[in-house]
Amino acid sequence: MLEIQGLGRRFGGVAAVDAVSLTIPAGQMVGVIGRSGAGKSTLLRMVNRLTEPSEGRVLFEGRDITALRGQALRNWRTRCAMIFQQFNLVQRLDVLTNVLVGRLNHRPALSSLFKRFTSEERAMALSALDRFDLAAAALQRADTLSGGQQQRVAIARALLQEPRVLLADEPIASLDPRSAKIVMDALHALNREDGITVLCNLHHLDTAREYCDRIVAMQAGRVVFDGPPAELTAARVREVYGVDEAEFEEQAAAALRRSAAANRPEPVAANAA
Ligand SMILES: Nc1ncnc2c1ncn2[C@@H]1O[C@H](COP(=O)(O)OP(=O)(O)OP(=O)(O)O)[C@@H](O)[C@H]1O
User: Fold this and answer.
1) How far, in Å, from the CA of 250 to the mean position of ligand 1?
2) Which end of the chain is more exposed for a tag (fewer CB within 10 A), N or C?
3) ipTM higher than 0.90?
4) For the chain, what is the HEC assignment?
5) Which residue ranges does the record assign to the ABC transporter domain (predicted)?
6) What's the pTM value of the predicted model, to 2 decimals?
């Protein structure tokens, strides 16, 4: 169980996340929605401590994550993997090596980075790639893959961390609809087959409804809706956000396009997903 208790983060005068409390049972798939600037990324990043909270706590199985330091914090970050809108692969490395990076935190000391990966680790990486239909691409450079393929490599890399929790920050925002479906299916499979708790920031409400057990809607740092997908009706969306669903999604998508353009990595070949 993951417990977020009164969690908050201020940046200067702005409360990016404000007194958020959520209790997330093990194995739940949670979709977090909200406009640009609502605090979705900051919330996820506090769960693995990429961003430090200003107040509140995060507990995992009763253990205070917010108090972890040093090796204990590194261990938590291994068990709480994260994937991003822009995939964050090392573009010039081959796919297999990118996936093997997910094992590095399992190694005892920095010196072990310079040793070769074991045959067990390579087998694990190949099996993770095979699970997402990417074994044939194992020796290709990451930058030869389509966006949908790169995101599946990132998911395979996360899987090698043997996580208990997976944080996904707008994982399909840069993908065409077909690739987006394949990536969401992959996340759903990890959730259902491996029992990994998934927290996923999304801006397509129908995607959140289709894949998630629970939807948390944020507005100006606060939770304004928390419930099952069936309760997030079109009328409720209008009540919470003051616009209809299509307008809400267009606003969110436009903001994501702007932020992706501002951080665009190397160009990605437009292969099929
Ligand atoms: N490192 C930072 N420094 C200053 N302000 C920040 C920082 N990170 C986030 N913010 C601010 O906190 C608020 C919430 O940002 P956050 O990125 O969490 O929102 P979001 O819902 O994920 O939106 P988006 O999808 O656009 O990233 C915004 O006002 C943002 O400008």
Assistant:
1) 18
2) N
3) yes
4) CEEEEEEEEEECCEEEEEEEEEEECCCCEEEEEECCCCCHHHHHHHHCCCCCCCEEEEEECCEEHHHCCHHHHHHHHHHEEEEECCCCCCCCCEHHHHHHHHHHHHCCCHHHHHCCCCHHHHHHHHHHHHHCCCHHHCCCEHHHCCHHHHHHHHHHHHHHCCCCEEEEECCCCCCCHHHHHHHHHHHHHHHHHHCCEEEEECCCHHHHHHHCCEEEEEECCEEEEEECHHHCCHHHHHHHHCCCHHHHHHHHHHHHHHHHHHCCCCCCCCCCC
5) 2-245
6) 0.91
